[in-house]
Amino acid sequence: MKALQQIIKRVTENPSQSWALATLVQTEGSTYRNPGARLLVERNGKTLGVLSGGCLEEEIGRYGKKVIATRSPSLLSFDTRRLYGCDGRLKILVEPLPAAERKGNLITEIGRLLKNRQICRVRTRFEGDILGSDLLLPDVLLPTRHGILIDAVGPLSDFCSLAQGPRSNRLLNLPQILAGL
To answer: Which of these, 58, 66, 122, lies nearest to 94 by C-alpha position?
Structure first.
């Protein structure tokens, strides 16, 4: 949560800047972070956040610069067993994040919801024709599908994580969880 708060602060303080948002969407084996972890990339490739413990951030920054320039998302796959001596595989979606300006963007909207202590769910599509992240209303139910990560942020997010099990390809059904309280 700390990294996300830092990302929100950076984007909010620089509303005219375009970014790339990298989201860890799938893992296998030993990895430093879980699906849902995010990293912000500036136009110059500088990153804020950690997805791999320092092994991949520079490379993600290079891809992020391309994503900002082309405004097209990119799905990256890394096998850390070959080059880094780790025992895992990761998929990371790097997507354009437009300048917040007056309307805001995904990150400023997440910040607004957190500030108001509201539940926030982010859907990240990393397979198929449409790649990218958007916000879901707390009461919207979606079927579980491969290639979609739905992550809860904000109040009750820790409870939801425990209730739903592993984060990879899970569906957070908040109304059913709340009904069980």
So the answer is: 66
